[in-house]
Amino acid sequence: MSWDILSGYTGYISFGHPFLIGIAGYTTAILTRHLGTPLYISMPFSILLTMVAGTLFFFPALRIRGTYFALVTLAFMEVTYHLLKIVKPAVTGGTRGLTGLPFVVTGAVPNYYLSLFVMLAVGIGLWVLVKSSIGTVLSAVRMDEGAVRSAGLNPTKFKLFAFTVSAMVAGIGGSFYTHYLGSISPRAMFDITFLFTILVAALVGGEHTIVGPILGAYFLTFLLEYLRPYIPGAWRFLLYSVIALVVYNFAPKGIYSIFQGLFDWIGRRMRRGEQYG
């Protein structure tokens, strides 16, 4: 959802979302591990810092788009990945990262319901946002920035707003994910495979929908867990690619478009039945 609100709605393809998730994760990890900060302080602070730092870092990149924007965001992720391994390892844990972090809740079932609650709260909030006039402008920015500018609106402000909201959602995910695992490391947060998973989930589910990335994440998770005994870990990413190609071939707008088409068909049949009933 974080990737979709920026890339799906404004057309600025970001490869740097692990950078945002990592900022939140490492911030709350360092605060709790070294300073003993309670979670109800460290997690909101990490989200706020992600919004501020991410916006400041990426603001210059908002003046470019396309391949150049994607490469700039990817560069931020890669630079941060290598810096965390060599700079202040006593603080960041170096290549091994930090372990022994506190959990928000313990147990598989409580973690599931907590994740579900956070996902629904964020999803509903973003859905309300994109259905508002702001969401309309963001979609217009994706289609034609010049038209937005000619209407007397500043597209840069709306792009900055979209990135700030995207950073906030990434911060929420990064902070909760870190304390779900109870540990954090550069490889876990900034590895290219993590980025690949984010992109495939959003694109397979359906970008520019908010609901699509949720469907994509659930679909890939359940499918891969079912196939885990039969497919070695390294082959999972080949499966990701195959799934993405199949979905793009039969449903270019993602899984969400299939459900949307099905519901529209059912709605037409019901209206037709009422008309001739």
TrEMBL record:
Its main location: membrane. It is a multi-pass membrane protein. InterPro entries: ABC_transp_permease, LivM-like. The keyword Cell membrane applies. Keywords: Cell membrane, Membrane, Transmembrane, Transmembrane helix. GO terms for molecular function: branched-chain amino acid transmembrane transporter activity. GO terms for cellular component: plasma membrane. The chain crosses the membrane at residues 12-32, 38-59, 66-84, 112-130, 158-178, 237-263. The keyword DNA damage does not apply. It is found in: Cell membrane. This is Branched-chain amino acid ABC transporter permease. It comes from marine sediment metagenome.
